[in-house]
Amino acid sequence: xxxxxxxxxxxxxxxxxxxxxxxxxxxxxxxxxxxxxxxxxxxxxxxxxxxxxxxxxxxxxxxxxxxxxxxxxxxxxxxxxxxxxxxxxxxxxxxxxxxxxxxxxxxxxxxxxxxxxxxxxxxxxxxxxxxxxxxxxxxxxxxxxxxxxxxxxxxxxxxxxxxxxxxxxxxxxxxxxxxxxxxxxxxxxxxxxxxxxxxxxxxxxxxxxxxxxxxxxxxxxxxxxxxxxxxxxxxxxxxxxxxxxxxxxxxxxxxxxxxxxxxxxxxxx
Length: 269
Hints:
Layout (H helix, E strand, L loop, with lengths): L10 E7 L2 E6 L10 H16 L5 E6 L10 H7 L3 H20 L4 E5 L2 E3 H9 L2 E5 L3 E3 L13 H9 L1 H10 L3 E2 H6 L5 E3 L4 H13 L3 H11 L1 H5 L1 H14 L3 H12 L12
Parallel strand pairs: 2-3, 3-4, 4-6, 5-7, 6-9
Antiparallel strand pairs: 1-2, 7-8
């Protein structure tokens, strides 16, 4: 494996096909939640893949039945009173989204188990997303008192339509992989035991294809996402503005202490 990947600590790499790089997210936290370092690594990996001439296609997956339950709320609690951490996290969130969009190589995601927050972002922003039918997903931003920034505003309405996007982003309800396929949020939902093999099959097929034609097709299609860039930037700014307010303080604390939230109904917003 190239030395360009040697410094990654929470991402491991293998080659299921000579020109396919499989990235496995390995977190020490429950349900594959991202440590601060892992969040940084997931935001940076796409530039290395784009520059690696030995890679034609990337797969991103989780460890065994964990995909990623998103950011570590203990880290996010620190962000509430540390502007430097807050700005670093915001920049990483931006780099993750634009990194996946601008990476010339096709990206295939393979998800089993839970995908939430930044984990859900890597799943849905992939060019081809393969999920287990009984995988569970949620965009939980509003549960912790911040706007659904991250990846949601740039891609959900395009994939599943505004009605479904508003429903799931405003309610933060969870849904299965089967439901995600039905509303066109992911490419394919399969029996759990077939997910990884199908991801490798699709990635290998792409790796054996015409690289220029595939990259230019991705480039053209992703102009739809780039047109939504100002919407994404607004949602990202509003999400991280929320981390400086009382709703995020209440939401994060309630989640960590496993109690019901008590948001002030008279918000000045």
